[in-house]
Design a protein that fits this description.
By secondary structure, this protein is α/β, with parallel strands linked by helices. The protein has helices at residues 17-27, 63-73, 91-112, 125-131, 135-145, 170-174; strands at 10-14, 31-35, 48-54, 74-85, 149-154, 159-166. The protein has a single domain, classed as Vaccinia Virus protein VP39 (Rossmann fold, 3-Layer(aba) Sandwich), CATH 3.40.50.150. The protein has 6 helices and 6 strands; from the N terminus they run E-H-E-E-H-E-H-H-H-E-E-H. The strands form 2 sheets. Strands 3-4-6-5 form a 4-stranded mixed beta sheet. Strand 5 and strand 6 form a beta hairpin. It is globular, with a radius of gyration of 17 Å. The model has no long low-confidence stretch (mean pLDDT 86).
């Protein structure tokens, strides 16, 4: 989809060599698979035009370091887009989404994947959601590391899209 929308090349980063090989087999020669982690990106400063992360930012070990790495690797004028589950700021909605993720989603997943895999891989979302920052806090962290950030929430804030522009280095200015 990104290649069809005008991106020249796509670099895919994942700690699993199996996943990057699988992606390469599906996406072709304009996809460049890289084994690595967000906390230590193997890219030159300013070498990326954009960073897009979908349903993976919640899994990083060090969120601050990952956001700093995204900013370091992205050229000025570049962008960051994050799509992930959200943790609403409002306690009532956060509790409702937390109940859904902890109790409803695993049951739905178990029935939908019945017999196709061992166990329930969706249960791994529960601990990552628990350590997730609230939507506003994550937006503030992105803005501090990357630049001006817009937050769009869907499904009561349980699904979020963050869009940030790398026009300046906010951390360097503030320090």
């Amino acid at each position: 989809m990104l290649l069809e929308d005008g991106f020249e090349n796509i670099v895919g980063l994942d700690p699993s060599i199996h996943l990057v090989r699988f992606a390469r087999s599906r996406l072709g020669r304009r996809f460049c698979p890289v084994v690595g982690v967000a906390e230590n990106l193997p890219f030159r400063p300013g070498s990326l035009g954009a960073v897009i992360t979908c349903f993976s930012l919640r899994d990083v070990v060090n969120l601050d370091l990952s956001l700093d790495e995204f900013a370091h690797a992205t050229r000025r004028g570049g962008a960051l887009a994050v799509v992930d589950i959200g943790k609403p700021d409002n306690l009532f909605w956060r509790s409702l989404i937390g109940f859904y993720i902890s109790h409803v989603m695993p049951v739905l997943a178990r029935f939908s994947i019945r017999g196709r895999t061992c166990g329930n891989p969706f249960r791994m979302i529960i601990p990552t959601w628990k350590k997730l920052q609230t939507n506003k806090r994550l937006s503030d962290m992105i803005e501090l590391s990357f630049g001006p950030c817009a937050l769009k929430g869907f499904f009561l804030g349980g699904l979020v899209v963050f869009e940030a522009d790398r026009f300046s280095v906010w951390k360097n200015v503030l320090q």
